[in-house]
Amino acid sequence: MLLGQDTMRGLLEGALARAAPCDGEGLIEASRASVTRFASNRIHQNVAEENTGASFRAVSGKRIGGARTNGRDPERLGACASQAAEIAQLQSEDEAFPGLVASPRARDAAQFDREIANLTPEARAGAVREVVSRVEAAGLEASGALTVSADELVIGNTLGTFQYHPSTYAQLHVVARSGGAEGAGTSTSGAWSGIDPAAVAEEAIRKCASSKDPVAVEPGEWVVVLESEAVADMIDLLAYMGLGGLAFVEDRSFLCGKIGERICGETITLVDDPFDARGPVHPFDYEGVPKERTVLVEKGVARTPVYDTRTAARAGTKTTGHALPEPNTFGPYPLNMALEPGDATLDEMIASTERGILVSRFHYTNPVDPRRTVITGMTRFGTFLIEGGQVTKAVRSMRFTDSVLDALSRVEALGRDAKRVDDVLAPPMKLSSWRFTGVTGE
């Protein structure tokens, strides 16, 4: 059950009082998470964890101290805040520290589903049973995991900032296998009603059944149709390579010198929207700063990276509300990215392709050249040949190396329906070319 806003606030403020004479900032997150894992058509692990984590920063002028603890005992929390204050007195001054932030209350945007919060082990097992029975009936082997969690986050400081947000999360991931063929289905939602075990199982079954007896095709430049999972992987790596303010102020980002200029095709608008209920909802960042919708790329034109207070001060601008928890060496990050959709369907993209490759998912993607947004990886869980506007046969998984921004300049169509893939909302996409460099062993 939820501790509730009043209890969480009391714990936080009681602990921050112990940071005196320093100013203090605190974060307390209470969570209850469960996972049911299955393989070989049976459940093999069912675990649950309840945890309360807390971290505190104490500030004395430009001196900063930090400490962490687990638990919700008031004395333990207070001792942690007091320890942060003691550490602060021993530190050298951090001249780049802009100070704590006095923020107004963020918009009320709770994304809390009581069905997820109260989901029993029996209910999770029932969802897995639905998956396994369908996969087994198709003569295939099922594996995967069902993960659910309920969380409460409270952030505040001695300057008057106080933010509270409860949230829930559910994800069902299913892999169906038969020999060397495999297919996957995944569904992620903040509400249990958004998880359809039968639909996820059927997607995995369909992809696996279609992946049997794959053929090898020649590497090179291919027209590709990317499903949402592959697009989301690409967008997430784009953010990692340069949409954060730290990379920007350190002149490591592909956005450097490009703000206000076209960096990809005009069909591409990428936003960070913390209030889009189709994705995760984060109404404030980990400094307690309220979030707003931030346009990162607008019709192919670079608009801004995301900032926290430290990187914003270095850039001479304002924070966009994208701080991550301290201590943090990575800098700010967009946690609510959405690629705005187009007007095509996946079937229409396939039908418009005379010869190309349909990619279900990317796998093991990594940056090669962040300034040029070059990534490498391979396809997995369903790669198919398109001939004459139809999917004709399975293709052995392919290795690729290409530039994300170059690819986003070669978009021929965007899907009208965006899917939540982890923390990214992404539609399917058709590209006029994508560079495959080899064929994997299987």
Please characterize this protein's 3D structure:
It is globular and about 70 Å long. It has a six-stranded antiparallel sheet with strand order 3-2-1-4-5-6. The chain has helices at 5-16, 74-90, 114-117, 121-137, 197-210, 228-242, 245-249, 309-315, 346-351, 404-407, and strands at 23-39, 42-60, 63-70, 141-157, 162-178, 181-189, 220-226, 270-272, 294-298, 301-302, 337-339, 355-369, 374-387, 390-394, 398-403, 411-414, 419-421, 424-426, 429-439. It folds into two domains: 5-205, PmbA/TldD fold (2-Layer Sandwich); 213-442, no CATH class. It is of the alpha+beta class. It contains ten helices and 19 strands. The mean pLDDT is 96.
**Cα end-to-end separation:** 47 Å
Compute the number of structural domains: 2
By secondary-structure content and strand pairing, the structural class works out as alpha+beta
Which strand order spans the largest sheet, edge to edge or round the barrel? Answer: 3-2-1-4-5-6
Tally of separate helices:
10
- The helix content, as a percent range, equals 10-25%
Instruction: Name the poorly predicted regions.
Output: none
Question: Main sheet?
Answer: 6 strands, antiparallel
Extended strand count:
19
Average pLDDT rating? 96
Q: Estimate the global geometry from the Cα principal axes.
A: globular
Please provide the ordered H/E string of secondary-structure elements: HEEEHHHEEEHEHHEEEHEHEEEEHEEEE
* Alpha carbon gyration radius: 24 Å
Q: Which strand-content bin applies to the residues?
A: 35-45%
